[in-house]
Design brief:
heterodimer; A: mainly alpha; Cytochrome Bc1 Complex, Chain D, domain 2; 4 helices; 31% helix; B: mainly beta; Sulfite Oxidase, Chain A, domain 2; Immunoglobulin-like; 3 domains; five-stranded mixed beta sheet; five-stranded antiparallel beta sheet; 25 strands; globular; disordered N terminus
């Protein structure tokens, strides 16, 4: 990691900002920190819990395999797709994005996606 | 289906509802069905330096959409500019004492510049639309995977920074240079995903309007919009507007990274159009924005009063030639009349159009708007389709009821 730069790499870094007032106008300058340092700009990302996905076989497998890199809300953001579209997405995640799950988990994950966001075609 | 349908429902359900001033009544029609997608997500809240009105598509990485009501601003307020990150390792703290922008590779004198050093260089300002390649992906038919942006993955702002060309000249680009790669502070959360790295051909990078910007609307960039520095490539989709820019490398070869060679590609066809059953065999990196216009007022489903004037307005923009003409139809596209254009804020900016309409007959009506660019490009009468859900520019139709 580069010097002087912090990244939101783990959920442990997602800490609610003390004194973060929703009603306050947007602040172009760094949020209040103690002690304030005008040369360091730091934000705290909100602690929005990941959504509960619909219950169907394979849910825990999907959450375990996919949540390392992104929120399972990505699934809820999608419209229904046919199996071949979901299979291509899961394949892309494994092969292009290096998602850390073995080949044999692909089918149950695709089955889950088809169960909760499936379409004919 | 219209972009307004999605975000309006979420917006009204959220905490940030804002009263809108217009002569057009905006009661919703009973049974006015919106599209699904983003409605499953709660309103975003407490995003630093951002408005709670933004629509949450994802919390990790952050993906936040602006409700289209806010296109009533000629310059999008900084807290309403949409947010799009690809990788969960987004920057959350930057120490300006140690932050550097480097420019290396096929150059004579590699640079390493601090924020303060950059800001001492001659600043340039311009107003430009920042629009995601996949804006309005949710309106594609058949639907395509990806963040399901309704229409608010765009905004317009005044950007201030130093010309990239100035930095390239300081570094002394060597003969034979082909492109400049662009890298920000964001990181993949694990080893495996390709880092988000883009490239611009050297000629595009040397365009005097391409800026390394430190200010948006005369304020520092919000962290989620790329503090401390963001590349601004006016006229081109924001995939090239790399946020938290820290590393520039001049190459004497083509750049074959994933985000250029595999992602953000469009069919090499007219209007980036292809058929689901006959995908184009040749694709190219997405680049210049096509011409678009949006109706802001009245909103879809508005009930307009018979005989009462309705002040309609919206915005139009293109990939950098400017907007020459905007036409409005109040009969679904059969007959067109010229809208009035507000003063020009620059060829890369939103251009606001206005049209006064006094309905004289009751019943359902469809408002349509189409823009023509200064280069003669007109919006499409029928939607294109492509596998990535990119570059939608059909003229949109807004249903209203006169009573």
């Amino acid at each position: 990691m580069r010097a002087g730069v912090a990244l939101a790499l783990t959920t442990a870094t997602l800490v609610l900002a003390a004194g973060c007032d929703r009603a306050a106008p947007p602040q172009p300058q760094p949020a209040p920190q103690a002690p304030p340092d005008p040369m360091v700009h730091t934000i705290a990302l909100p602690d929005i819990p990941p959504p509960q996905l619909p219950d169907a076989p394979g849910r825990e497998m999907l959450v375990g395999a996919c949540s390392t890199c992104h929120t399972p809300r990505y699934v809820l953001d999608q419209p229904p797709f046919p199996r071949r579209t979901w299979a291509a997405e899961v394949d892309k995640m494994r092969h292009t994005f290096g998602a850390p799950f073995p080949e044999e988990m692909s089918k149950p994950i695709v089955d889950y996606l088809v169960a909760v966001r499936g379409a004919n075609g | 289906m219209r972009p307004n349908h999605l975000r309006r429902r979420d917006f009204l359900a959220g905490v940030g509802a804002v009263a809108l001033a217009s002569s057009c009544d905006r009661r919703r029609l009973p049974g006015d069905a919106g599209a699904p997608a983003a409605s499953a997500a709660p309103a975003s809240s407490a995003w630093p330096e951002k408005s709670p009105a933004l629509i949450l598509h994802a919390e990790r990485p952050p993906n936040l959409e602006m409700p289209l009501e806010h296109l009533r601003h000629d310059l999008t307020p900084n807290d309403l500019m949409f947010v799009r990150w690809h990788l969960a390792g987004v920057p959350t703290s930057v120490d300006l004492r140690t932050f550097r922008l480097t420019l290396a590779g096929h150059v004579d004198r590699p640079l390493s510049l601090s924020y303060d050093e950059l800001r001492k260089l001659e600043p340039t300002s311009l107003v430009a639309v920042n629009q995601c390649s996949g804006n309005s992906r949710a309106l594609f038919s058949p639907r395509v995977p990806g963040v399901q942006w309704a229409g608010g993955a765009l905004g317009n702002a005044r950007w201030t920074g130093v010309r990239l060309r100035t930095l390239l000249d300081r570094a002394g680009v060597r003969a034979g240079a082909r492109c400049v790669t662009l890298r920000g502070l964001d990181q993949p959360p694990i080893q495996g995903p390709p880092p988000f790295q883009k490239s611009l051909d050297i000629d595009r990078a040397r365009d005097p309007d391409v800026l390394v910007a430190w200010a948006m609307n005369d304020q520092p960039l919000p962290m989620l919009n790329g503090f401390p520095l963001r590349l601004v490539v006016p006229g081109w989709y924001s995939t090239y507007w790399v946020k938290s820019l820290t590393e520039l490398t001049v190459l004497d070869t083509a750049f074959e990274g994933f985000w250029m060679a595999k992602a953000y590609r469009v069919p090499k066809t007219d209007g980036a159009d292809e058929a689901p059953e006959h995908l184009a065999t040749e694709t190219v990196p997405i680049s210049r924005m096509d011409v678009r216009s949006v109706v802001v007022r009245p909103e879809p489903g508005a009930r307009l009063r018979l005989g009462a004037p309705c002040a309609m307005d919206g915005v139009a923009f293109d990939g950098g030639s400017g907007i020459a003409r905007v036409e409005v139809s109040v009969d679904g596209g059969a007959r067109w009349q010229d809208a009035q254009l507000d003063p020009d804020l620059g060829k890369y900016s939103f251009r606001r159009w206005r049209f006064a309409w006094t309905p004289t007959e009751p019943g359902p009506r469809t408002i349509a708007v189409r823009a023509t660019s200064a280069s003669g490009e007109v919006q499409r009468p029928t939607p294109q389709w492509n596998r990535g859900g990119y570059m939608r520019n059909v003229y949109e139709r807004t249903p209203v009821v006169v009573s």
